[in-house]
Design brief:
The protein is α/β, with parallel strands linked by helices. The protein folds into 2 domains: 119 residues, Rossmann fold (3-Layer(aba) Sandwich); 132 residues, Rossmann fold (3-Layer(aba) Sandwich), CATH 3.40.50. Helix content is 41%, strand content 19%. The chain has 10 helices and 12 strands. The strands form 3 sheets. It has a 5-stranded parallel sheet, with helices on both faces. Helix 1 links the parallel strand 1 and strand 2. Helix 1 packs across helix 5 and helix 2 runs parallel beside helix 3. The protein is elongated and about 55 Å long. It starts with 14 loop residues before the first strand and ends in a 7-residue tail after the last helix. Keywords: Kinase, Phosphoprotein, Transferase. This is Histidine kinase. InterPro entries: Bact_response_regulator, CheY-like_superfamily, Sig_transdc_resp-reg_receiver. GO terms for molecular function: kinase activity.
């Protein structure tokens, strides 16, 4: 696949990397994953060096790593995963005995997606991983959708509504800001859980402006209000600019339903993890 193309977040045959210094732990996790996800390919690595070699050999869909590794720590590995993944967002799960402390103190950085409490066992870890590579529906979540073409909007809205998502469609960035302002003042019935915007919009403001206003003017972080940007521009510099402006992820046009819904559900799940009532 050319490097400028966005890679699918999940696959029917997900490739999961398990990094742990213990051969026994790697085997236990691998056995449970293969039972839970029959088409999974598990790549076991004993160190950061082995993991980097595996990443260079091909993309992975998710990485689990212990916090302590023979040649470094899981946080260093997480950064290597981000560097290798390019535009694809690869969840990195740190398996730790101090997971609850990490969660309570919000020790998520830009490289680590989540922490999992190893005391819960390998069966629970497999179920947890499955929630990432094969996201479950999140009925009732509200998506604020900004698209100036009514025809495109209707088709995309149907894709999302088929998965029990509530979609509020607006034609302009200004309309989106009005709704966000009303919500911030407590004047809306529904909480907006995610913003989906086309990069090209009629009027003075575009999708990048939407991202920047959400992040700067409204002060919403990526977990409080995820923003996905739909773009037909395959220029890697333009894609990077959108991500640097604060977009959580990009969705390549023409829109493919499975990819769109997967990315929406994944970002909604991450957002839920940041809420106080997190239970692993």
């Amino acid at each position: 696949m050319p490097t400028h193309e966005l890679k699918h977040l999940i696959s029917d045959a997900p490739r999961v990397m398990v990094v742990d210094g213990s051969k026994l732990v790697r085997k236990l996790i691998s056995d449970v994953l293969q039972r839970e996800l029959p088409d999974v390919e598990v790549v076991g690595c004993a160190s950061i060096e082995e993991a980097r070699e595996a990443l260079a050999a091909g993309p992975v869909h998710l990485v689990t790593t212990s916090l302590a590794l023979p040649d470094g720590d899981g946080l260093a590995l997480a950064r290597s995963v981000r560097d290798a993944a390019g535009q694809a967002y690869v969840p990195v799960i740190v398996v730790s005995a101090d997971a609850q402390q990490h969660l309570e103190q919000r020790r998520f950085n830009e490289y680590v997606t989540d922490y999992f409490d190893k005391a819960l066992g390998h069966e629970a870890l497999a179920a947890f991983i499955r929630g990432y590579v094969q996201p479950e529906p999140m009925p009732g979540a509200t998506v604020l959708y900004v698209e100036d073409s009514r025809v495109v909007a209707e088709a995309t809205k149907r894709m999302l509504e088929r998965h029990d998502l509530h979609v509020v469609h607006v034609l302009t960035a200004e309309d989106a800001f009005s709704l966000l302002t009303a919500e911030s003042l407590g004047r809306t019935v529904r909480r907006i859980d995610l913003v989906l915007t086309d990069v090209t919009l009629k009027g003075e403001l575009n999708g990048r402006d939407v991202v920047e206003r959400v992040r700067i003017d409204f002060g919403y972080g990526k977990r409080r209000l995820p923003v996905l940007v739909m773009t037909g521009d395959s220029n890697p510099h333009n894609q990077s600019a959108l991500l640097q402006a604060g977009a959580n992820d990009l969705v390549q046009k023409p829109i493919e339903e499975r990819l769109l819904v997967t990315k929406v559900l994944f970002q909604l799940r991450l957002a839920r993890l940041s809420q106080p009532a997190v239970v692993l």
